[in-house]
Amino acid sequence: MSLVAREKKSATVEAMSSPTHSFNLRSWLLSWEIYLLVLVAAFLRLYQIHTTEFDGDQAMILGMARYAIEHGLWIATSNYASIRIVNPPGIIYLLLIPAWISANPVSAAIFTALCAILAVLLTYFFVRRYYGRLAATIAALLYATATKAVFYSRFSWNQNMLPLFVLLLFFCLFWGVVERRKGWFGPAVFLIGLLVQLHATGAYMIAPFLLAVCLAPKTIRWRDVLLGAVLLLISYAPYLIWEISTHFSDVAILLTPTNRPTLVDNWALVFYQLMISPYEVPFTNTHSLLYKLVPFIGWLRNTMTILLITAAVMALLKAVWPTKIATTAQQKTIPVLGAIGRWWLDLCSTPYRCGLLILLVWQLVMFALVRHSLPLYLHYFIIFMPGPFILIGIFIAKVVLWFRERGSWNVLVSAAMVLLSLFIVFAQFAGTTADVLDMVQGNFHDHARSNPYYNDLASLQHALTDADQLAQKQHLERVYIAADRANALAISYLASQMHTPTTIFNCKECLVLPTHTTGPVAMLVSPYSTFVDALLKQFTQAKLVDSPPRLGGDPFRLYVVSNPDQLPSARQTFSNQLQLFDTHLRLIKFNNASWQVSHWGFLHAKPLSFNSTYTYMMTASPASQSKLTSKGLCELSSLHPGDELLMAFRENSATLPLKVTVRYQESRPYDLPFGPLALETGVDQITPWTTLKIMNGNGATLLSPATGVAPAH
């Protein structure tokens, strides 16, 4: 069956006032291009998916889904947005499916990739239904091979689910506006609500929705309005309960001025163009496979931009140009408002033009982001996908059909357009394949991919598995993990699946050790936590046994650690939580700076639990110079009685004693009570800072300055 044959059949749709679109599933499934689409989309989105990104956001949303399943909770919110409001719970409800199947984060990544593959198929079905087989094949292949579309399909994140539901929304809109059928309004309202739950940019879909309402008001029934209101209320009910309980604090944040200047710039256009480009400009990663292809695919960026602009102009002309032109005499006798009304009635009576106008409005609302007061990010433009590829597919198909209908020589031009389309698809596929291979092979710099740095799931799981197996093989009682801001939440989620008891601590200024009676333990140190290495070398017997590799950055370091110090009797006890072993500080030099280290021990136990932390903050200042304050912070995922804590303070005075105060805080997930139910939220329940006091009631202790100690190397 020819790809162009369907174009001839659908060409008359432009002139039809009430088009009918046949849907023969059996004949469509016999179309060879569908299987090519599935093969290409699946390869690019599922190849070595175990190397998916797994940072704090991914750990948080999947952890919330698992937490809800394990504790039988309804879900009121998801995680925090960048503007510090809590998002609605849509993404968590979606992730209940993979979370129920497996606790392994790979399941969530596969689920996201499968939804993206389904979005590619829906692109094909949507365009084929309304614009023909050739347009559908070109649009879907362009979308299937687009670099950024593939990138956002390979890891779980709220907004990565947008394209699937955007396409479902446009099926609803075209059902009412183009096919003039009833029953589309209620599902469309629900889908817009879901899009807003996934990301605030989903609100931009209100524009094509309102246009659809204006173009096809007779297809909307009162029961459709009621259905939409009920579906919207049900989907937002848990979130409304949360907002009511917080007196609509998130709404207040949204309505509060940002105190930032309003900017008018071209960043929206830059990001929009990047979504259809094979690489960022300038592309400076000389170690990547994609860099080697840049000379051969560099033309894609401008070519896709020109095709999109041309396609948008063509669609605009077809949408606004009336099908019946009034004579000059009629134009003179018709008032301005009458002419506009006549044009509007003509537009509403031409479903084909209405459909093009809705597609255009979907893309044109992007210009609203040209004026902004908040920073723009590339993922804000996922909401417009796969619109550009649909417009380009329609344009190329129309050009091919126009030339094919005008004689034998013009057939060569139409064939050239088809070949150009195939050439673009092949070039995109090559560039995207190189980008995927770069990601799974680590041909990138982790600090350039994310802030503070990028973490992939395979590397994290490999490092934790190595530590777990080392502990089991050598009969070590515990595993200690020195985490940092980039990986703490991800490691905390994965550590709950380890067989060996685990303690995770934030290693910026502290080191947690077992007591000397425990014997050797395994300690996994984060890639850039070199201060921990210095502390281990200075104060323990540590043997480096492995360096688990990471994609795109420095490796972890795995030690077997023994604590050689036999503890003296505790000098002071703080609120039955913490004890001070030595009133003398010890000196360590690191990165051309001097640090003074204090020695403490834990007295109480706290279990490892999802998103729960226990934090000690120590403030040290010279006894007679309170302005020279140094702080040490240690955040732990669990507490084990008998464990020791080394807290370091940057040296301010080498001769004066330090006055040290200790404060303690706990953070755990907050479940909102609602009658007999409990609603999970993405909010932390944080206790106030409590100052720990010595048994004599004093809230501070004096530590003697460090004496000469050999520096760490």
Automatic annotation (TrEMBL):
It comes from the Bacteria. GO terms for molecular function: pentosyltransferase activity. The chain crosses the membrane at residues 28-47, 85-103, 109-127, 161-178, 190-213, 225-242, 299-321, 352-370, 376-397, 409-431. Residues 88-242 form the Glycosyltransferase RgtA/B/C/D-like domain. Keywords: Cell membrane, Glycosyltransferase, Membrane, Transferase, Transmembrane, Transmembrane helix. It is a multi-pass membrane protein. GO terms for biological process: lipopolysaccharide biosynthetic process. It holds the Pfam family PMT_2. It is found in: Cell membrane. InterPro entries: LipidA_mod_glycosyltrf_83, RgtA/B/C-like. One of its GO terms (cellular component) is plasma membrane. This is Glycosyltransferase RgtA/B/C/D-like domain-containing protein. It comes from Ktedonosporobacter rubrisoli.
